[in-house]
Write a structure and sequence with these properties.
It is a single chain. The protein has about 170 residues and is an alpha+beta fold. It is about 40% helix and about 15% strand. It is built from three helices and four strands; from the N terminus they run αβαβαββ. Strands 1-4-2-3 form a four-stranded mixed β-sheet. It is globular, with a radius of gyration of 20 Å. The mean pLDDT is about 75.
Length: about 170
């Protein structure tokens, strides 16, 4: 009897998930009806979390970005501004750039065109979150790295280290 109860709870949970996805799709479809070429009615987008100084995407971050990639298909006129935050020092600016880079690359792999993404980094806010905003404004889809020597995307031995082992600054 207890085994049947656990199966029915699992079935109910799956049914609720499917129903929730269906409701979300209907809502998105309804919101996209009548969207003009000069407006963006994309709903508020969630923040993408990063832990501490990490720049790699977590499983949770990838799931959020997967949802945003699907959502963007219903709002093709919209651009997505990817905005990461930092404190005012070289290392933080580079980590902010790295995070934006990883988010934009992931969204591009999921089918969002380069010209639909705006690259913004170094803004004020929580450095452990990346803000995503639906917009019609123009902006760069890529910007050069501010301080590549501080990039956490590269292994330590490939960063800017002088022959004497000291760290090279720009």
């Amino acid at each position: 009897m207890a085994e049947n109860d656990s199966h029915s709870k699992k079935d109910n949970h799956m049914l609720n998930k499917k129903l929730g996805c269906f409701i979300l799709i209907v809502f998105i479809w309804y919101q996209s009806i009548g969207q003009s070429a000069d407006s963006c009615k994309i709903p508020d987008l969630p923040f993408v979390p990063f832990k501490n100084e990490a720049v790699a995407l977590s499983l949770k971050a990838k799931r959020i970005l997967d949802t945003i990639a699907i959502l963007h298909k219903y709002f093709p006129n919209c651009k997505i501004k990817v905005s990461s935050h930092s404190h005012a020092n070289e290392g933080d600016y580079q980590r902010s750039w790295d995070k934006t880079y990883f988010v934009i690359n992931y969204l591009r792999k999921k089918g969002i065109e380069k010209d639909k993404l705006i690259f913004e980094y170094g803004t004020e806010g929580d450095p452990e979150e990346i803000g995503l905003y639906g917009t019609m404004e123009d902006g760069p889809s890529w910007v050069p790295e501010p301080v590549p020597c501080f990039s956490l995307r590269l292994p330590k031995y490939k960063r800017c280290i002088n022959k004497d082992g000291s760290f090279r600054h720009y």
